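Problem statement: downstream parser choked on a complex file, so we are re-checking the raw output for the S-adenosylmethionine run. The parser issue turned out to be on our end (a line-ending mismatch), but while we're here, posting the original submission so the record is complete.
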Amino acid sequence: MGKDKLRRFAAVKEMPHFFEPTIPNEFHLKGKWHQEVFKNDNPIVLELGCGKGEYSVGLAQHFPNKNFIGVDIKGNRMYIGATQVLELGLTNVAFCRTKIDFINNSFAENEIDEIWLTFSDPQPKKPKKRLTSPIFIERYKKLLKPGGIIHIKTDSDILFEYTEEQIKEHNYECLELTWDLYGTLPENLDQTTRDIFHIKTHYEKLFTAKGATIKYAKFKIH
Ligand SMILES: C[S@@+](CC[C@H](N)C(=O)[O-])C[C@H]1O[C@@H](n2cnc3c(N)ncnc32)[C@H](O)[C@@H]1O
């Protein structure tokens, strides 16, 4: 790790809204995020593979009555979002450094209301590692409330095609699906929804600069 990455990694560990479960143990906040971290009963939304946490921070500003947790294995990336949270004075965002593979060690049954998958790695050669593979969906089923929603925003044809197939094969309830998000936003869309879709993550900016079309789907797995 470079010097700056190490500095950011050390700094984020000191922040009060940054948590680092130790695997393979169950995390002490499992089932207690509402009471012990957010001190309210508001819905909790996870951003999985959050990187710098643009969606967690962006959504938190639009929805002060929801709580957001960015999850990633890279602490030095989460440092960026975690620092913005402090600068903006947000109290409804936390970050959790863990592998998503062990997400059930950190969150209890029915603890989560929504999941965002933002520009997840497409894993071209390892479909089982895709964040919409049945292995991961089973993990999400355990922590999502019945009727909980999954959003996926991606540049990747491979990941999106695979996700569309999974939705059909497993009869997930598809609420929205578009291969060209920005080309198909209805003109009469309300401003908040428009703003949400226009939150641009680091990877979205990189991919759109290369001409990628952004895809989006929203579905329920129960
Ligand atoms: C392509 S980046 C996208 C980051 C961010 N969402 C964005 O759009 O800029 C994928 C992120 O997912 C994280 N990631 C991938 N697989 C993961 C896993 N199994 N557990 C935890 N984090 C993972 C990586 O560390 C990386 O930050």
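For whoever reads this later: The longest strand covers residues 144-154.
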